[in-house]
Fold these 2 entries.
Entry 1:
Amino acid sequence: MSATSRNLPIREIPLELSSGDSVFAVCFCFLFALAPHFVHLPPWVIAIVVIAIVWRVLQNLGKVPELPKWMLIPMVLAGGVGVFADYWTIVGRDAGLALLTVMTSFKFLESRNHRDMLILVFLCYFLVATHFLFSQSIPTAVLMLVTLIVITATLITLNQRDDEVPIIERLRESAKLVTLSIPLMLILFVLVPRVPGPLWGLQSEQRGGVTGLSDHMAPGQISNLIRSNEVAFRVDFEGEIPPQNRLYWRGPVMAMYTGYSWRQTPHRELRSLDLITEDTGIDYTVTMEPNGEHWLLALDVPTQRVSGSHLTRDFQLISRKEINDLFRYRVQSRLNYMIGTEESEDYLALTLQYPEKINPRTVALGKSLAQRYDSPRKIINAVLQMFGEQEFFYTLKPPALLGLNSVDQFLFDTRRGFCEHYAGAFALIMRAAGIPARIVTGYQGGEYNRVGNYLIVRQSDAHAWTEVWIENRGWVRVDPTAAVSPSRIEQGLDSALSDEIADFRIQNRNPIFGSLLYSWDNLQHSWNDWVLNYDQRKQQEFLKNLELGIETWSDMVFALVLLLVSVTALFWLVVWYRERPPAPEIYETLFGRLLKKLSKRGYKMQPSEDARAFVARLPQEEFPERAQIERIADLYNHIKYGRRGASTSALDNLRSMVRTLQL
Amino acid sequence: MPRPIRQHFERWFESRNPPSTDSILLHNRRLYILPTRFGYLFAMMLLFLFLAAINYQNSMAFVLTFMLTSLGIISLWQTHKNLLGITVRMQIPRPVFRGEDCEFQFELSHEHNARRFAIGIQYQDQPPVYARLEPQGSAILKLKLPTRRRGEFRPAGITLFTRYPTGLFHAWGWLRFDLPVLVYPHPGDDIRLQHSLVEQYDGQTSTSTIEGDDFAGLREHREGESLRHISWKAYAQGKGLLTKTFQGQARPSLWIDWDLLSQGSIEERLSFMAGLVLAAEREEQKYGLRLPGLVIEQDFGNAHKHNCLHALAIFRQPESRPEFDIERD
């Protein structure tokens, strides 16, 4: 081996057994990082985790033996089979998480040395990433930041090789590292060029999100949804927010009627824009919470396609992908419109169908109305009038509608219902009267957040209404609920049902608490907007608005490197300054100056000498001013070791003596 | 590596890491840093996370990836900083016989207002030893190195290193001290003074020696003389350490002579001679040493013993390269 090759590489450090302390730290760290997943994991996986950790801790305490290596192979195989048996796959989010958890637990059982412990810590870092597949909310982010500090503290413990350092100090050290990382992380987050994904095919998988609207409507379905105050989506309007009673958010449209429930027809793309309007259009941006479905909500009616989606002939926006992550889209709607004036005969026939034998009284009512009135408008008004003037009640807790003829039961007996009851009954009457009708589900209204100037639409705003088709007028929205309970449409659900439901609206709360809640919601909205939606488009838009001329990829990389280097250098300087060695005493500096002069003449003070002994060995012939040097050395000794120490006069004296000395 | 490049590199390395006889201050030019195996593993994990983040278009996965990347960058300079400004002094170790472990003692100190954790000293691929430095503090680290050859031992490849705080990077500086340890030849086992192998010298017997038949008097104790010959009675009377001397037929004094040993390789001969030195010292005889080109006059005592062993240690030492000890046995 030559000197060169010896001096280059890093030396391998021979395997070192992990210390007891670090085993405990890694066990705790793993449990801490995994804990939020306990709700997502099947019980048998949690059991394996607990058993493995307890075993490893007991093994560390010398209570149980180390498992022999050969036992691990069947265990690993069994773990893989178990996961497959549970999920019928070993990839994808849920099965992948279970597999990772099981294998990490087994890794604990075979971990012996420092290297194994480091690998386990890395797996914990990896585990943090998996949490974000389940939730990306602010609380999750904060929890994960804490988790990062715990994991990094564990890593520090492993590398400290010193069991005497208290835990709190390790945590502080770790928090320092993580805190220093945040500014660099922000730079990377903003400036690393984003690539549109996905890079490889994703398995279609129901990935959480709140269940919202459904693809069919039966009595009782929407009233269940109403009890949830989860946010369905938030809307930023580019202009004025339209009045509450115009805020119909169009979702699944249902034209097929089975006698009990309403269902969607297969989506067919709108070929030509069958729309007549004089409106200029309203532009707005919707940030939709994940719901695992395809439909995108838009104000009645959307007149524009959103990229990655299509507009169906019944004016629904249907996304090609399921909305499994927060989805943000800009869309345009017209509030005054005529659609479907040229609706196909086939479709109109479909929207007239109903089973003759079910709900005979309702059907009979429809048929009699058709005979009594000569125009559809009159029929519609008659039914709305009936709802408004007779004893119909709008309630979240209608009596159960059992039996086959549920609409009859509702219309003629109970007369208490929620929007889906009224919409369903109304549509059926229309069809029986020979007017094409369909159900539209979606949301109605929304709450204005004055802090952030946007609209919050919650699951509790879910609503169902009807559309009827009138010759030369096309599909017309008719909301029978408005006839029963006008306040539902004018002021929202809470005013209409104030004694039946919990009040989800912030505006009805105590004003101080209310503005806190508005601010919190606004924070979430900004988080969605700036963090979760920061994609290629947002990045370009943001950098353009900065007006720093950062436009191309290479600009971004250049700015990135420049910023990273300068921020790191700044940190380095600050830390260097804070940890700098204490400044030498003045007398040391002064005496050092003398020593430097003497060393130029070839006389160096040895570590074994004191000042006096050193000066004494200077030859008189070479140094005629030796007496002066001796006096300096004496004074130096005096100041340094003397009882009176460094008085100002002594220091001044020393300074002038060193200055006047000519060497 | 091609020869010119290697030579260039070696010159560069020499200029940056001159061997020191006093102390080594680890400043920027003397410090090196590279990722560890775990650093590379960490980088691979980051790449994987990054691809996953792109694939799922998951913003928080991006945040995590960038957070960990930043953690890596921060720990790069934290690891470097952990070693920066440490001064290392080495104590000249005591000479040992070949085959014995030689204990090197390093004193680490620094003036910075920061704690230094997990500072290790490692010799080649041996297990390292670690220390912690308090702010402006110091610590002593002992390293036991095996000796494989006689002669002057300048261990090469001792590094002061650290992987603190994250273990992703390995920062190190070379501790190249020009303070050779003497490694004496391994003394042959169980060697007695065989009179056929040493030249006897029958001098006058009038001198007083510590061995003999008739008590001759007391004289001042010399360092290296056996405690057995101290007159403890005189010591108890407060006369100081005195040695009893005897008159009589003194034992012959010896010459340990290279030329009398005709057999064996150089190393075997030197090893045997070292054994004889020890034997003579044990039997408290005066002895001298004759090597080709070198004569050490007859004497005895600790200093004399070490003189002789020194001469044996460096006798016909192979051309002393600064780092000659590296070849594996």
Entry 2:
Amino acid sequence: MTSAIEFKNVVKSFTKTDGSVQYILNGVDFSIPEGKTTVIAGGSGQGKSVTLKLVLGLMQVDSGRIFIQDRDVTGLRGTDLERLRTEFGVLFQSSALFDSLTVFENVALPLRERTKKNQEEIREQVAATLAQFELTGHEEKYPAQLSGGMKKRVGLARAMQLKPSIMLFDEPTTGLDPVMSQEIYHLFARTKAEFGFTSVIVSHDIPKIFNLADQVILLHNGNMDVFGSPEEIQWSDKPYIQEFVKKTMGDIYQSHLVE
Amino acid sequence: MKSNPIAQLGDTGLYVLTDLGRMAIFLLHAFRGMFRRPFRLRELVHQVHFIGAGSLVVIFFTALSTGMVLGLQGYYSLSKFGAEGMLGSAVSLTLIMELGPVLTALMVTGRAGSAMCAEIGIMRISEQIDALDCLAIDPFRYFITPKFIAMLISVPLLTAIFDVVGIAGGYMAGVGLMDVSPGSYIQGMQASVTNHDIRLGIIKSFVFALLVVWICSARGYFVGEIRGAGFGAKSVSRVTTQAVVFSSISVLVFDYLLTAVLL
């Protein structure tokens, strides 16, 4: 199967204030298959968001190579990096909506800046997207006037405007109540079925998020464990993974053991 | 923290070099943004309105009070030597070459530079700048370069307004309140102010504009990477204070350097 994203022996470290070096990724290798959904899980500060930032070129690796659709993109800069980013759509943890722009302007921004569409075409496409994401009637509102779930929907609508082939979701349900989280998962499933993008989801929302996963990557102390399916995690004999499973998937884990 | 003082010194030196390096790269990106399309004329007009038109009131009152104080002080000093006729010359030269560009830059730093720094800092910590990057939209072309151009347009114009209002203030104090004759005030000004003096004032205003917009926008842009700034809202407040202090000191230092070189 073709890889959408591939890390080869990637090292990323940070220097702490006391001068010591913390390895977030310590020579990791993994591959994200095209068209599938990969969930990146792990405790806080284990490098989940850093992994996304490395993919997007918002941070640079210390060593190792990153391939996007079989193209080496390590250290890419300038217009090459800009071109590469048009392949991606990103839903940020905070939604990252432009707070001085209305919902309509937020969603229209990628079309205005990255395409040659005229005003009429942009208006039509944005109206259709807003209807698809159940945001019709909220066009003139500013992000501060929206609920958390609506902000996520606007963020997703904006990210989908350039029809990316890879979607990255950074903690898509953080700060949302269970009902709203469920709504976001349905929205995810619907848009994925429609657009067929490769998706990478960084999330704490375990085990719910595993329902969407074709593959799971578990980060722990700079290393990664890759599992072909969420079920495989439960049968790992590594102590820290058993600990992780007990903490995050307790009931499911127990029921599987009974089975 | 490193306990060895030499290690601390080296660490600080490396930090300062890194900071200067990223500031230099920031400036290059801001200039490069001027040549990238599509050009954001509407944003430029908005920024000129915010920096220029929005600062008119504070510039007007600062210039008026400065000019009037110069008029009174100048009259007091010059009358000791019987040289009240030189008041127009003293007020206009002081304003055009020194106080006009410096005070305009300081006022713009306080009013627009600080706001600029806070706005960019908030955009950084709320991931809006990352979002622009991820949408393949160059943040420099999109919103930083228009601020640079607007500042370079607005500050020289505000300086010119400052000079005119200040000279009028000097006239009001010297001629209106004291017994300087209107003719000698105007004639003294016309006789002593040369094109070279005006050119010096204009050069200063451009350099100060660049310093203010560069320092204020870069501090906000790099809010997460500035040592000791902390995180979140507090980091934005700290870098904004830092931006105003650095900009003000830079303006005063460069005022001396430019005067020494160009006078």
